[in-house]
Amino acid sequence: MAASLRLGRQGILFGLRLSNFSKSVWATRPWQEHVRHFFQSPWLLGVSPLQVQMPALSPTMEEGNIVKWLKKEGEAVAAGDALCEIETDKAVVTLESNDDGVLAKILMEEGSRNVRLGTLIALMVEEGQDWKQVEIPPSKAPPSAALPAIHVATAPVGPPAAAPPPKLATSAPLRLSPAARHILDTHGIDPKLATPTGPRGLITKEDALSLLKMSPTPKATPAMAAPDAPRPLPTLAAAPPPTGSRPNIPPLSVPGKPGAPGTFTEIPASNVRRVIAQRLTQSKTTIPHAYASVDCDMAAVMHLRKNLANEQIKVSVNDFIIKAAAVTLKEMPEVNVTWSGDGPRALDSIHISIAVATDKGLITPIIRDAANKGVQEISANAKALAQKARDGKLLPEEYQGGSFSISNLGMFGISGFSAVINPPQACILAIGTSRAELRLCKEDQTLRTQQLMTVTLSSDGRLVDDALASRFLDKFRANLEQPQRMALA
After folding, report:
1. What is the SS3 assignment for 375?
2. H/E segment holding residue 449
3. How many C-beta atoms surround the C-beta of residue 196 within 10 A?
4. In whole angstroms, how far apart are CA 35 and each of 38, 125, 176, 284, 400?
5. Engineered SS bond to 208: which of 21, 180, 342, 425, CB 3.0-4.6 Å?
6. What 8-state DSSP symbol labels residue 362?
7. Which residue has better confidence, 157 or 454?
8. What is the pTM of this model?
9. Cβ–Cβ < 8 Å for 483, 327
10. Which DSSP symbol is given to 170?
11. Which helix (H) or strand (E) segment is 293 a member of?
12. Residue 15 pLDDT
């Protein structure tokens, strides 16, 4: 009896404590808050997504192209997994995921071009959430929604269509289903104009479709397109020009038909071509180019290269040129500089950029710390980088941050040329082909055949004046004509 009384008293005390705890919880979170959380649950209004936006994968990138998606909708994604391949202004780069979750929706399909930075390309949800119920965020394109109203107001034909009177906005927050939100945002319609018929004031898909039928936006589309009809160039070019006059613009050729004299075909420019055009224009209009040339005797390099080939060590002449340029920069650090907005900036490292021609354009992968590497290591790095550049697989750190560029056209039979400086670098070395010439030897006054190669240095006159450029070329020639000097530097 005493035990039962004692247990009963403890049970009553426990019940009172539990009651006080429940009162404190409900006091901090009123019943309205619980109701609000119920109606904002993911299974009722959709799953809140993790947004994947178009990132900046290079310093000069402003837009990119979606090449290939490596994950499918509904597939699990871990942090660090490859999501898709993006073509930047330099190469094709793999975009990796920053979060764990599931790829719920791909908004930019494969082949999407000129996608601006910050554009939403995909949606992810957290693990355990229903990826099929992902909520698509509203599109950020308010100017497109305002275009029909502007054209209707300026159109001279007919009286403007009377728009339905807007409804007064209520103080309660709008609640839309994912499908309704997508329909209204796509067509640029204010959700406040919809009449909610769903439970507790929810705007359903049917409400959005009903509002879409009543909206004046589709009616304004012909009025918007009407003024643009007579604008295309082919219509203007089809009219016969006056006798004795020539058209200012040649007509556009028609695909599938032989082009008439004077026609042309527009070729869309890739991101790489556009960036090359911008940087070349920037270089030639903002950098005062100065040029200096010198002939180098390649007999010693040819002889050393032949001896190394006998020992199964294959290196190219360009590898010796890269090594000679890096060693010369190490001996003359005043040339290893770049131009910034405040003036010259001395560089602590020697990274040689080598120009590689690809199908999409010229790109300059970088051999880092070239002065501290041997010719054989430089050769291996150059071959690997050139192949990755042609395949479009260069990483951003493999073509950004060079201090000195080398462009070699000797394999194409070019005897000599002047290259354009790659900003913000100060110099670029243009290499021609080697040729045999009969010259007088100063030592014994005899005629000898020499293997000469013309090297032209393009330098930024603000950083490297003519005297400094001449001394650089003289030391570069000495390092190339006497390869043993490079081992001592």
Report:
1. helix
2. strand 446-460
3. 18
4. 5, 24, 17, 67, 55
5. 180
6. E
7. 454
8. 0.56
9. no
10. P
11. strand 289-297
12. 54
pLDDT tens digit sequence for 406-438? 999 999 999 999 999 999 999 999 999 999 998
Among 40-54, 68-82, 183-197, 286-300, the least confident range:
40-54
Instruction: Using the structure block, give the residue that is written with the tokens 């010439």.
Output: 437
Per-residue model confidence (pLDDT) at position 259 = 63
Q: Which residue has the higher pLDDT, 264 or 128?
A: 128
Q: How far is CA 269 from CA 78, 161, 329, 354, 364, in A?
A: 35, 42, 37, 24, 20
Q: For the chain, how many residues are written?
A: 489
Task: Determine the 3-state secondary structure of 188 from DSSP.
Answer: coil
DSSP type of residue 288: -
Question: Would you state the structure tokens that stand for residue 348, as one six-digit string?
Answer: 């602590």
Token pair for 47: 């799953």
Q: Could you give the CA distance from residue 469 to residue 431 in angstroms, rounded to a whole number?
A: 16
Helices (H) and strands (E) in the chain, counts: 14, 20
3-state helix, strand, coil in the chain (%, to 5): 40, 20, 40
Buried b (16+ CB within 10 A) or exposed e, 258-270: eeeeeeeeeeeeb
Count Cβ atoms below 10 Å from residue 352 Cβ, excluding itself.
28
Helix (H, G, I), strand (E, B) or coil at 104: strand
Burial classification of residue 251, based on how many CB atoms lie within 10 Å of its CB (0-12 exposed, 13-18 middle, 19 or more buried)? middle
Q: What is d(CA 466, CA 189) in angstroms, rounded to the nearest whole number?
A: 65
User: In 3D, which of 388, 381, 391, 390 has the Cα closest to residue 316?
Assistant: 381
Encode 419-430: b = buried (16+ Cβ within 10 Å), e = exposed: bbbbebbbbbbb
Alpha helices in 29-141 (DSSP H): 31-39, 42-45
CA nearest to 360, candidates 268, 222, 243, 297: 268
- Is the distance from CB of 114 to CB of 63 less than 8 angstroms? yes
Residues 387, 351 contacting (CB under 8 angstroms)? no
Residue matched to tokens 């001279």:
156
Q: Classify residue 211 by burial, with Cβ atoms within 10 Å: 0-12, 13-18, 19+.
A: buried
CA distance 36 to 39: 5
Residue 116: other Cβ atoms inside 10 A: 10
- The one-character DSSP state at 232 is -
Residues 6+ apart with CB under 8 A from 335: 328, 329, 404, 426, 427, 464, 468, 472
**Are 344 and 463 in contact, with CB atoms under 8 Å apart?**
yes
